[in-house]
Amino acid sequence: MNAFEQRYRQIGGKIVPVVLKPAIRVNTLKIDEQQLAERLAAKGVVLKKIPFAKHGYAVESSKFSLGASVEYLKGYLTPQETAAQLPVQVLDPQPGDRVLDMAAAPGVKTSQISQWMQNKGTIVAVEKNNRRVVGMKNNLERLDAQNCIAFNTDATKLKEWKLTFNKILLDAPCMGNYVKDKDWLGKHTLNELDRNTMTQKALLAAAVSLCEKNGTIVYSTCSLEPEENEFIIDWALRTLPVRCVSTGLTIGKEGLTQAFGKRLTADVKNTRRLWPHETQTEGFFVAKLVRQ
Fold first, then answer.
1. What values do phi and psi take at 138, rounded to 5?
2. Average pLDDT by consecutive 10-residue portion of the chain (292 residues)?
């Protein structure tokens, strides 16, 4: 048995092959949901509304890739995995907010923030990897995200800019999970966790320093490892001036409050963990923190 499967069994999970249905998000900055559904139906595309994802649709049937369609090029839609649509929904950005997206490339979640804000307010989108910035800017332009400024910089250094935000999204760099990559189990080892968690803690500490009192921080990963998820939130609750509140999500399970012999702060249960074999999505984790 693989080392990852052994540890998943200890915390209530397992590795089961999951075939993800393609999913899209309708970009209501450019088109009404019903209009797009009718337009695609005329081309033989069958969509099904995802009940727990605002503007999200599963592609039940299509003879062509929607990512190579005219509708994609016009910015009417963007491919976006179902679970990946949830962090912005939990953040719930509103018109007039000041929002920071701390690890923004490829810009899909950033554009989703603009959509929720109706292009009113300000988004600062930060990406450390300069090779990913061009693609991010292209996505933001295609999807008509007009209220966004994109920077190629290290988000942990933003405190020097003396900026503050009332909402922050940290979709943190992580190990990922086995669902999208058939070779994932052979590529990764537990030795990666120490390096990853150092980065995740540094980014989350920076997020808290940049967040206004009573502001919201959403921390998310596409990892199944407690060290990158519940353990990070437990560390934050013990170390930083934040509290962990309900995400409001109905999909998935409560976050773990104990794992591998470690007992965590009770409020970590307010986080949400998505096991692929249960949700038929990629593996995912979402936490909602409030700055005190």
1. -65, -45
2. 90 93 97 98 98 97 96 98 98 98 97 98 96 95 97 93 96 95 91 96 98 98 98 98 98 97 98 97 98 98
82-291 maps to which CATH number? 3.40.50.150
148 is catalytic: no
From CA 190, how far away is CA 207, in angstroms rounded? 26
Contact 101, 169 (CB under 8 A): yes
DSSP state of 190: T
Q: Which of 148, 174, 222, 244 is catalytic?
A: 222
Q: Work out the angle at residue 73's Cα, subtended by the Cα atoms of residues 72 and 77, and round it to the nearest 5 degrees.
A: 25
CATH architecture of 21-80: 2-Layer Sandwich (3.30)
Question: What is the chain's length?
Answer: 292
Its pTM stands at 0.97
Cα–Cα dist 102/182, whole Å:
28
Tell me the H-state helices in 57-152. Answer: 70-73, 86-91, 108-117, 130-142
Eight-class DSSP state of 159 = G
